[in-house]
């Protein structure tokens, strides 16, 4: 597919059976997992008139919750990203929402869970990791926003994360699987990055699955577990979308 002429179809969003496949429909293949991450982020750079209808399900130490999110990109400079935020303090406890808005003038702000509008810079801690070990440790619960780190200019990118997994950082073993499904009369090919580790000392057992639509090169399912914590993400990508100006406005 020509990435500069992004033809994002209404990518098939499967039911929960797509999230934790252990059956015979997945077949291990010889493919570099880093190449999948690189293709995804190369496609990100072409985004224009794109949105992602996203369903999230979280079971975390601060609580459980379901939510629907709608990140949107008029361009790679004008966008609005929404994602869940976990709060666990004496005043607030649970799962809330926040937005990252870029209005195209160079201003990028965090809105929602944080009071007021907070300036976001490429060094913002939400989109950066001081080391590969820190990135790998945090990604299972932070991927909802770190997936889009490259739009902010952060270093917690998908390519860096998968590269760290491949090197064995965090004790994970990683492989790539493939499956071909028949859906609505057409064949759909998925690739899956599958990484897991056994419990070791203070590190709980953990599993990461990132499922890509092979045609568009973008993730459609992500499922991570870390001990008893469970995070699920489903996305249907669409292009040729039109957005109201108000979506990207930042109050002065």
Explain what you see.
- This protein is of the alpha+beta class.
- 16% of the residues lie in helices and 40% in strands.
- Strands 1, 2, 3, 4, 5, 6, 7, 8, 9, 10, 11, 12 and 13 form a 13-stranded antiparallel β-sheet that branches.
- The longest helix has 15 residues, at 132-146.
- It is globular, with a radius of gyration of 18 Å.
- The protein starts with 26 loop residues before the first strand and ends in a 14-residue tail after the last strand.
Q: What fraction of residues sit in β-strands?
A: 35-45%
Radius of gyration from CA coordinates: 18 Å
Name the shape in a single word: globular
> How much helix, percentage-wise, in residues?
10-25%
Structural classification? alpha+beta
Would you report the number of β strands?
Answer: 13
Number of helices: 4
How do the SSEs run, as a string of H and E?
A: EHEEEEEEEHHHEEEEE
Main beta sheet: 13 strands, antiparallel
The stretches of 5 or more residues where confidence is low (pLDDT under 50) are 1-23
Give the termini separation. Answer: 41 Å
Q: Give the averaged pLDDT, no decimals.
A: 86
Blueprint of the fold:
Elements: E1 27-29, H1 33-44, E2 50-60, E3 63-69, E4 72-73, E5 78-88, E6 93-103, E7 108-112, E8 118-119, H2 132-146, H3 149-152, H4 158-166, E9 173-183, E10 186-197, E11 206-213, E12 218-226, E13 229-238
Antiparallel strand pairs: 1-9, 2-3, 2-4, 2-13, 4-5, 5-6, 6-7, 7-8, 9-10, 10-11, 11-12, 12-13
Helix pairs in contact: 1-4, 2-4
List keywords for this structure.
alpha+beta
Brief summary of the model shown:
The chain has 252 residues and is an alpha+beta fold.
């Amino acid at each position: 597919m020509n990435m500069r002429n992004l033809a994002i179809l209404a990518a098939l969003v499967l039911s929960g059976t797509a999230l934790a496949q252990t059956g015979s429909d997945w077949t291990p293949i010889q493919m570099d997992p880093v190449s999948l991450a690189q293709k995804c982020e190369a496609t990100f750079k072409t985004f224009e008139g794109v949105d992602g209808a996203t369903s999230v399900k979280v079971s975390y130490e601060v609580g459980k919750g379901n939510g629907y999110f709608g990140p949107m990109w008029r361009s790679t400079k004008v966008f609005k990203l929404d994602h869940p935020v976990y709060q666990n303090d004496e005043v607030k406890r649970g799962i809330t929402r926040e937005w990252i808005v870029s209005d195209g003038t160079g201003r990028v702000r965090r809105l929602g869970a944080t009071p007021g509008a907070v300036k976001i810079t490429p060094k913002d801690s939400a989109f950066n990791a001081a080391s590969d070990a820190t990135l790998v440790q945090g990604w299972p619960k932070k991927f909802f926003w770190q997936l889009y780190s490259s739009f902010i200019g952060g270093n917690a990118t998908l390519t860096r994360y998968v590269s760290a997994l491949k090197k064995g950082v965090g004790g994970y073993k990683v492989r790539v699987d493939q499956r071909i499904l028949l859906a609505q009369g057409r064949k759909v090919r998925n690739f899956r990055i599958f990484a897991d580790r056994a419990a070791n000392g203070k590190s709980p057992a953990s599993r990461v699955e990132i499922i890509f639509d092979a045609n568009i090169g973008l993730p459609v399912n992500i499922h991570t577990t870390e001990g008893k914590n469970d995070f699920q993400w489903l996305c249907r990508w669409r292009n040729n979308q039109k957005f109201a100006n108000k979506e990207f406005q930042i109050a002065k």
